Amino acid sequence: MKKALKQMLAVDLGASSGRVMLGGFDGEKISVEELHRFSNDPVTLGGTMYWDFLRLFHEIRQGLLQSKKYGKADSISVDTWGVDFGLLDAGGRLLENPVHYRDGRVNGMLEKSFSLLDADRFYQITGTQFMEINTVFQLLSLAENRPELLERADCLLMMPDLFHYFLCGEKCCEYSAASTTQLMNAAEKTWSKEVTDALGLPERILFPISSSGTPLAPLRTDIAQELGIEPMLTVAGAGHDTQCAMAAVPTQEKDFIFISCGTWSLFGTELPAPIITQDSRRLNIANEGGVGGRISFLKNIIGLWLVQESRRQWKREGQEYSFGELEKLAEKEAPFRSLIDPDAPEFVPAGNVPERIREFCRRTGQPVPETPGQIVRCIDESLALKYRMTLDEIRTCTGKDYPVIHMVGGGTQSALLCRFTAAACARPVFAGPVEATVYGNLAIQLMAAGQINGLSELRSVVAASEPVKKYEPEDAQAWTEAYGRYRERFA
Questions:
Q1: Cβ atoms within 10 Å, residue 151
Q2: Is 89 tagged catalytic?
Q3: Residues 6 or more apart whose Cβ sits within 8 Å of residue 183
Q4: Where is the Carbohydrate kinase FGGY C-terminal domain (predicted)?
Q5: What phi, psi does 76 have (nearest 5°)?
Q6: Which among 74, 241, 341, 380 is annotated as catalytic?
Q7: Which of 187, 178, 180, 234 is closest to 206 using CA atoms?
């Protein structure tokens, strides 16, 4: 028998846009409807790149307003990108707009940290992929350059927890978001005093870590009254959007490979416990926390950011292309003409990505891609080959083979990238759902309400809610040869 219909709101904030989505559950399937979509536009002021937190909070309120026409929602949960945070003073006031992870304040902080804490020991504690954007290096920059701000801070809240706090008034530090900071002991799931002491960071501002799917307080009365809506429960689901997507991978396999593909590509597998070994350290693979205390053993790879930022550059130059048009142009270009390492540091900041790709190819002695089609073909082929390299690294660390790949998120809308991924990895790719993050967000709220029992049932519900598309490998010999060249150049 079907359970009673339940309605929830999922706020999904990505690096370039955000949505407020309405979810319904009839006991078997989750339905999803978009209520409000808005851009997420960082603001550079005085040489610092900020997230426009006030505008984003206003847009969430607009989504709440739109929900009125559908009746009472039972709960709401926010998921965002990882690593970024806000600082509150003792009165619960935001000290400044959160700074964007692409801001230059982190430059040099990775190397600085290794002079304070041995890199191997650092990884042994945290099990986290070393990336200069990580929270710990942002805080080290503040300790070095703005210690007075940390002195004024009473509490650090990761971005999803910051939104939850201003929605309901309750502070929380949810596990999946905390695991992106490189401040957490991966095995113990607690903040590492050894790391904070070694780097001179104030442990006192770190709020205790709570499990994914923790119910918080209801929506603040003043917000509910102003918008004319009934208060709903706020749920700290999986605040890191990758872990929402991971929870929604529609499979019952114990061992599987997933790619959560959007602005970033998160490539990995799910484990019951962290893998922290010499191999995982050498290969710089992260152990991130997920739903039910599971571990996502993964690598962060720059993803469709390269296409998104290239598209923005062409628009600045007076040429506006849709993603579909760019894919058609790329389809017509010659294969394997030019390849890049998507994770080369020059591709991280915003700016003229097409010119950076051309310069990368000049420097590495390859034909220089000039047209938009050549640029996008270079990006998609390079991403697919990077996925294959990462698959081999995951297999090295786990000792397991993985017969298929599950690809979820916005990147699954690119049939070209899905085809290239299947071909490069020599495995079928099951693509979908596109809205995996939203499905995960909603389903975790249902778990918190006791209407879904555990990850296995959650994934069965998602599988029943939206079909997936299968891509078989093609052109095996050509891709195998291209992968050999790619490894020689970039491994």
A1: 8
A2: no
A3: 126, 135, 136, 139, 191, 192, 195, 196, 201, 206
A4: 259-449
A5: -145, 145
A6: 241
A7: 178
